[in-house]
């Protein structure tokens, strides 16, 4: 099964959306295998968004992400990366369908409240960056009714 890194950004934490976002992934059937509140350094955030370093919005993105604590989560389950992205919605919240997290709670690209890994390879990189202590292995009793 697949793992994905999901993070509530500082605006999402400030707006009290941690529980809502975590809850949507739980209810969908994904297994929470790591979670913590963190205040990442500038260097840590620059590594997380290293692919975007040359983009004009990069300095503003790092400033935004330094605005307060983030809530870091790893979820495991069937097609977790692609399904996680679908649950978050489009990068631009105005293009996100209602029913998605950004489509329900955000308006601006630069304040889009949550992050989700965009590929299995990047998910594994991000999990290693944010959870060097590792994730947990355990059995959900629900699994038998969630999967066929
Ligand atoms: P993440 O899940 O946060 O990685 O978002 P994403 O994968 O949907 O988008 P991407 O990785 O391309 O960009 C990372 C983040 O940078 C976005 O979520 C936005 O917060 C911000 N961002 C991306 N494009 C723009 C832009 O054109 N303007 C501004 N202000 N911010 C942007
Ligand atoms: Mg991205």
Query: How many beta-strand elements?
Result: 4
Mean pLDDT: 98
- In which order are the strands of the major sheet placed? 2-3-1-4
Q: How does the major sheet shape up?
A: 4 strands, antiparallel
> Over the alpha carbons, how many angstroms does the gyration radius reach?
15 Å
Treating each run of at least 4 consecutive H or I residues as one helix, how many helices? Answer: 8
Instruction: Please estimate the helix content.
Output: 40-55%
Q: Tell me the series of helices and strands, N- to C-terminal.
A: EHHEHHEHHEHH
User: Hey, roughly how much beta strand do the residues contain?
Assistant: 15-25%
Determine the structural class based on helices, strands and strand pairing. Answer: alpha+beta
Task: Describe the protein.
This protein has 148 residues and is α+β, with helices and mostly antiparallel strands. It has helices at residues 10-14, 18-28, 42-48, 58-65, 80-88, 101-105, 120-130, 143-146, and strands at residues 2-8, 31-38, 70-77, 114-116. It contains eight helices and four strands, in the order βααβααβααβαα. The chain starts with a strand and ends with a helix. 30% of the residues are buried. Residues 52, 57, 60-61, 91, 109-110, 112, 115-116, 118 line the site of guanosine-5'-triphosphate. Guanosine-5'-triphosphate binds at residues 52, 57, 60-61, 91, 109-110, 112, 115-116, 118.
């Amino acid at each position: 099964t697949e793992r994905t890194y999901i993070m509530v950004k500082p605006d999402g934490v400030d707006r009290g959306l941690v529980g809502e976002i975590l809850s949507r992934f739980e209810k969908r059937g994904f297994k929470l295998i790591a979670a913590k509140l963190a205040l990442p350094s500038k260097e840590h955030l620059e590594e997380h968004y290293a692919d975007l370093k040359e983009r004009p919005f990069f300095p503003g993105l790092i400033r935004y992400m330094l605005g307060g604590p983030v809530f870091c989560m790893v979820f495991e389950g069937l097609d977790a990366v692609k399904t996680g992205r679908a649950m978050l919605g489009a990068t631009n919240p105005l293009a996100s369908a209602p029913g998605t997290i950004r489509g329900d709670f955000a308006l601006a690209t630069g304040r889009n409240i949550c992050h989700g890994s965009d590929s299995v390879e990047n998910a594994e990189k991000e999990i290693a960056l944010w959870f060097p202590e590792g994730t947990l292995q355990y059995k959900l009793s629900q699994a038998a009714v969630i999967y066929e």
